Structures are given as C-alpha cells and as structure tokens.
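Researcher: Quick one. three chains, 1001 residues in total.
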Amino acid sequence: MNGTLSWRRIRPAAMPVIGLGVALAFLWPYLVMLLDAFRPSGDVVTTPPSLLPRVWKWTTFGEVFGDERFRAWLLTSVVVAVASTIIVVLVAVPAAYFTARFRFRGRIAFLFLVLITQMFSPTSLVVGIYREFFSLNLVNTYLALILTNAAFNLAFAVWILHGFFASIPKEVEEAAELDGCGPVTRLRRIMLPLTLPGLVTATIFTFIAAWNEYVVALTLMLDDNKKPLTVGINSYVTGYEQNWDQLFGASIIAIVPVVILFAIIEKHLVGGLTAGSVK
Amino acid sequence: MKRRGEASGPVALLWLGPALLLIAGVVVYPAVELVKASLSRYSITGLRKGDAGLANFRGVLANESLGTVLTNTVVWVVAVVVLTILVSLGLAQFLTKEFWGRRVVRWAVIVPWAASLVITARLFSLIYSYYYGTLNAVLLGLHVVDTPIDFLGDDRWIMPSMVAVGVFVSIPFTAYVFVAGLHAIPGEVYEAARIDGASPWKAWRLITLPLLRPAVLVATVLNMIYVFNSFPIIYTLNESNPGFGHDTTITFMYKLAFKSAEKDVGQSAAAGLFNVLLILVAVVAYLRVSRWREEES
Amino acid sequence: MRTTTSGHTAALRWGVLALGAGLALAACSGGTGAGSAGGGGGSAKKATTIKLVAAEYSKDHTKAFWDKFASDYKAKTGNTLEVQIVSWDDIDQQSSTMVQNNNPPDILNLNAYASYAKDGLLYSADDVLSPSVKSDMIDAFVKSGTYQGKMYGMPDLSSARAMFYNKALFTKAGIAAPPKTWAEFEQDATKIAGLGNGSIGYGLPLGPEESQGEFSIWMFNNGGDWKKDGKWTINSPQNVETLTFLKSLATKKLTQNNPGKTNRQDAFDLFASGKVGMVVGFSPLAATLDAAKKVDYGVAPMPTKADGGEPQTFGVTDYLMAFKKKGNQDAVKAFYDLYYQKDQVNTFIKAEGFLPVTKSGIEQFKSDTKLATYLETLPNAHLTPTDDPTWDKVKLAVQQNLGTAVTGDPKAVLDKLQKSAEAGS
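Model:
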C-alpha cells in the first residue's frame, strides 16, 4: 500500500527525530535544573527570568563534591539503596513464585495483604516505625532504613513478579519437572530467565524508591553523615539562606547513579523476547 | 503425597516467611500504632493525654474543608492515573521499536523517575513561578500570553499545574511496566497477525492490548495507590496557598498534625486511616470493574 | 538473576530466625526507652550524655558551630553532647514524633515553648539557669520566655524587622526620604508603582509561611496588638483598620501579584531583583543583598499610622528549651552556662547573621555600625505572645487564614481568629 511504503522510507530518519522530541520532553525540566546549577543562587530567583545564566558559575559541582557532608550523604544513599534492592529481590522472588505456582490456603489473602500494606503512606507509619526501631535500639542505623525500604517495596516486586510467573505457561515447568527438577531448580534455571524483564523492572523500581525515600530517613537518621541525599540536601536551602545552585548541582549528581544502574541492566528488559521455549 | 500444585502450610511459610516478617515488622506494627494513635487524645506538643474514643474521627468528618479535600483528591487521582496510563501505553510502544538512538531515549525517559520527587516538586515550583519562572518566560517570549500566568496562585490553574507534574513523574515507571509486558509477548504472535493481514492498529487493539491486560491492571492499581499517597507535589506546589483549598487527603492529613490550627496528631492519624480506607475502596472498585470486563470479553 | 539453591535456602532460614527474634523483642518490650542520661565512669563526677536537636539556620554555620560547641562542652564538663541537625521545614514533625514516643531530646531548638511548658515537660530557669546568666538576658526576651511566672523558653538568637527600601527606585520616583507615616508610605508606593517597567511599590507577603509576622509589624505601628492585659484583641478596631489598609494596598495594585499567596522569601527575592520599592526585611535579607551587590538599599524604621508616632520594632526569638529527664539536670545546666558565655552565643549569632539576646551581647555588637538601627530598638522590641500556649495554635490559624483577607473581608477574618483564640485558651 502507498502509505506503508513511504513510511518505510522515512522511518529510519523520522524515528530518531521523534525520539529526540520524546527525550527532550522528559529532560527539559532537568536541563533547566542543570542550568540553574551553573548560575549564582540569586540569579535563579531574579525577576525577570533569563533562560541562560546571566553570569556563569562553574565551581558549583566542585563545591558540592568538595563538601564532606555531601560525600557522606551520597555514600549513605548508595549503601541503603543497594542493600534494600538486594533484600527485596531475595525476598520477593520466592514469595511471588510460590504464590503463582502453588495453591494454598490464604493465597489470595497473602496477595491482598501485600497490596494493602502499600496503601499506608509512610508519613502515617513513621511514628510507629520510629517507636519500633527505638525499642530495638536501631534508630540511627543503616539496618533500620534498609529493612524499611525493603518492606515498603515488597508489594510492587511481589505483584509484578507474580504476574510474570503466572503468565508463563505451566507446560514449560511441567516439562522440567518431568526431567526431575525440583521447585527451586525450576525457579532458578527456567522461570527466572523467562521473567527477567519483570525482575529488572522490580530491581529498578526498588532502587529508585529506596534512593529517593525521604520521610523515614528523616526521622530515623539522626547523625548528619548517616542522612541519605534526599534529607541532606535540604541543608542547601533554608528559610534564611538559599544556595539554589548547590541544591540543584547536588540533585543532578544524585540522578547519575540511578541512570547508570538503569543503563547497565536495561538491555535485560528485552530478556524474555526470544525465550519461545516449549514449541 | 500432596497433589501437584498444592502446598502445605509450613512449606508456604518457608517461601513466604521473609516477606511476611518484613511486612509484619515494618508495616503492620506501625499500622497498629496508627490505629492506637487515632483513638488517643494528644496535646499540641504530641504528648499523649489519654483515650479519645472516636472523637478524632468525628473531628475529621466535621472539618469544614473535608469536602474540598475529597473533591481535590478524586480529581487528582483520576486525572493523573488516566492520563498516565494513556500516555504510557503509547510511549511503551515507541520504546520497543527498533531505531537509532533508542537507548539514549530510554535513558532520558527514566530521569523524571530517577530524580527525587521532593526535588522535582521544588524545581517545578520554581519553573511555575509568576515572577521568575521558566514557563512564564517562554510563554511571554513566544507571545502566547501578555501577562504571566499565576500557575501556583490562581485557583483555576493550581490543579492542572499539579496534575501535569504528577503525570510527568508517573509516566516513566508506568511506561517501563508496559515495556516489560510488551517484551514478554512472544514475537510469533505478531508474525501470525501480520500473515493474517491485520492492520497495525487492529493488531494492537485485538492482540497486544489484551495481552497487556495484566500489566495495565498492575500499573493502574499501583499508580492509584502511589498517586493517592503522593505528598511532595501537592505540598510543595501549594506552599503559598493558605488553608486547605487545594490539598488532597494526604497533605490534609499532614497539615492537621503540624500546620493547621488543630495541630492534632490524633486527628491526623484518623485522617490517615480514612485515607487508607479511601484507597482500599477505590482499588477494590477498580478491580471489580476490570474483572467484569475480563469475563465479558 | 541467579540464586544458589542450598545457600539461598539456608540464608533464608537464618534470616527468618534473625528477623523473628527481632520482632519478638519488639513485641515483648513495653514502652520506649526513657531518658538518655547514661551512667558514667568511675570518677566522682558522673559523665552524662545529652541530646540536642538544633534547627538548621544555614548550611555552613549551624552544624559547624554546634559541633565545635559539643567538643568545647566535652572538654569543659566531661559530658557528651549529641547533636542532631534538622531543617526548619521538618523540625515540627520531628519534635512531635519524639514527644509522641516519650523520647524528646534533652535540649530542643524551636520557635515555640509555651505548650511544652504547659504540658509540664520542661525545666524552668530556676532549675537550670545560673542567676548571672539570666540577669544578662535582655528583659523583653525574658518576659517573652516566661510562662505563668517561670521562664522556660531560653532565647538562642533574635531578629528584628525594619523597612528596607530601594534607594535607586526612590531617587527615580523623586522620593527624598523613607516614609514616616502610613499616608506617606502609600504615596511613596504609588509613585514607585507608577514608574512602570514591572516596578512594585511594596512587597507584601501574607502567605502561610509567616503572615503573622508581617501583620504584627504593621499592627504594632497602629497601636494594636495580639493581646492586651491578658485578653485577646485580634479583632480590635485598630487591627481591623490595619488589615483593611493592607488589603487596600493590594486592591490599588501597589503590591506584587497575589500578596495573599506570597511568602516572605518570594517578597525578598523580588526586592533583591531590584523591582520592589519597599519591603519589611531583617538581617538575612541584608546579608543576601550585600553579597549580591546589586541593589542599593537603605534601612529605616517602620512608618506609623499616626503623625509623629514612635516606630515600633517587631522582634522574634527562637528558643532552646530543656526537657525534664532523670539525671540530666546538671548536664543541662552546664549546657546553658556554656552556651551563654560571651564567646559562644555571640559567635553563633554573628555567624548566622542575627541579633544578640544578652545585654553583654548588645555591647559586643555595637561595634558593627550597620546594626546600630536594630540594636537601639532591640530592648524595646515587640514580640508575638509566645508565652501563651494558645498562641501556638492561633499562630497556625493566622498563617492559614490571614492571606484570604486580601480578596475577602478583613473584619470577618479577624473575627474568626478572635473566636478561635478565645475558644482555645
């Protein structure tokens, strides 16, 4: 047909252009933020605004990295986010697999419980969380924050993995079972590779959620050097002194690890495509 | 020997145990504390002064701003979730096509999700500013408007401004849920459709969309929950607005505790429980509706 | 993502056991831990650990000061001071969480204290303040920190407001000197607004952040007050007049856009952009302006409603209050003794750019000519009624409602606030 033919021709050129448009649509506020990191703080809030800095300030990122408080916050964020993600995956995979494949009493209840726990906002729960960790003497520890973040993100991981496990035809596993594979081996050798996209999604989701968590970290982490970035960078802009340039510079830096993680594992989103398998 | 596919209690506990423990510890216990708090009387300092029975719940229901807050919440959730799902479906399709530069586009799309919501909210409150905001600068420069738009102060503009940011930050995660879902669809399915001569649009509607149903379900339910509980956007963009005029239930709950004349932690806890109830009702309603559809088609 | 079979299961089992034990502990432990006064070493004097929750005024100075203070404190007394720095935006939530869990810090830095005193949570000055320290404090602040005859709110620093004006805009509009009366003020604002080019006569912040502050300073200069002789006078005729006056400024377009929804910092940013003729500011604004060197500004006393009236200054202090806990009284007393040493408190105040709270501090700061205007009026500064626990709620009500008067009815707004204040006491 005529229409299809000419789209075929311009497609290789048109798609990247559309892609550029899409990329800009999602990046433009952060480009504004990047520019704001390169101008003195006062210029950010000057009327009338100018898109490009009136005066360029190149030292912001150096200042931020040079600040030992910032470095401590960055380290905390990394530790907490990585550990939380690992725990979520370790805990959610067996739970989701089991719920998808085996019938047992309370199966639906478990899924629903997991979902309901997501409905409680951290702001509501933070007082109870503080009380609990205080009695365990775990306030101001990484462990408390890691466990909290893991628990908060469990629902998403379980639900999405459950969906993926459930969508794989039973015949695939039955074939393996006939070959003598027990549930754990089946999980490891067959299901996990097939559900890699879901796993990747759960990993990214948890990492980002833990990386950007605010309320519980604010309440539990008392020492300045144990605060994650989200809490720490509040210090840049107070009611009395504003350092917008450093705030935004630090925020840009905070985005980088997440994008790097994503860039590394993103190709596995394609994982299950050719898994084909049974036929 | 148990029937295949069935499991006994203790075995279930082994697989589910860690998950249950984490949830019990970090969510159930504090949730119980929340309920206890809602039944207690507190001084303005947070000191517990005794039992309150249901007084806190009555107090919240009697609040003159409750109607406005509920309306705002419904509008906020419906608008953000619907728009997010629609845009994400299209975006996900785009992101699964092969083209030069796709990788970079995928990385770009993740940025709003990667950035802390608190920071994005602050950023947008600057971008929306009447006097020094980028958005007004662009609108004025392109002569779309003569005077700046008061995005954050004009009652007509506040909700659309907040919804725009809400959609903006929700699209990346939703789109990737759909991308994962799309990649799980075997390629043979599309081959078969093409051989049968179906147009791309028809193939999408009759094959892709139904196969994406689980993903859409998950994404919608989770989005509903997250948007209901989304705090930074509403709170930050509303910073210069007095009263509760543009608050949703979650910022209402926070303000009841710390920023309103009530300054009552007990009432805030009651409001928090109402919030959970609201979300539960909304999610159950949605699940009912979508299951129905499944049975019909 | 691959997991090893047997290692995984074993790890799971241990994890289950560990978490189970932890939760059992939580279930079995009763209330939360009480005070933080710990046992010390074997020497005669017991070393204690006390906790300070301090609000963050600035990134570079607050933590730096308190960290150094903590080491000075340890060197001098042997006690340990744990410092937790919290942003002003979050400190209400933090302190509430701590109090709800019966785990307040030993010293809390907050902008209120009376409600805590009313709940019987605090030490009074009789318990923890040396007489020499108390007598050095500025009387107005002692009074403001006294609830029911006892002082509970020790001031950490103070600030005072004044009228900042843009000298360049004044010259351009042909205004010779800053206004002394409200009538002159309105004229000046009109002239500046008439300059066009986005010029704003007066930056009026009545948004929820601090509308009680802005209203206070105008109210005091019209002979009004929040309370008089122990009774609330929020809707007194003078106050209604004042609020109506402010509303008229907005109606006559002498202010920036939407004053009912403008917060203090936004008004300051506009002034720093050189677009605003006058704004009520304080020392942090001066610091910003001095650093940017963009606006040629002057500082003047507030205009009064009546001709020949005496300009009233609006002053604010924040507080360092001490929570009663077993065994921490001596350590807390040592804290205050050290903090109010001339080289400690004034170092902190100077670094943060605020005003002193002690008489000796005033003497010390006199050498800075820029502060002369403030220092003269400081001992007679008006404060909001922070000594009344009801004010803690009224203040919030004011913040949430005052801005609506700009587009609504000033008298109705003040009547409502008066009613809620009377109901709350």
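Chain C has 19 helices and 13 strands.
Researcher: Thanks, that's what I needed.
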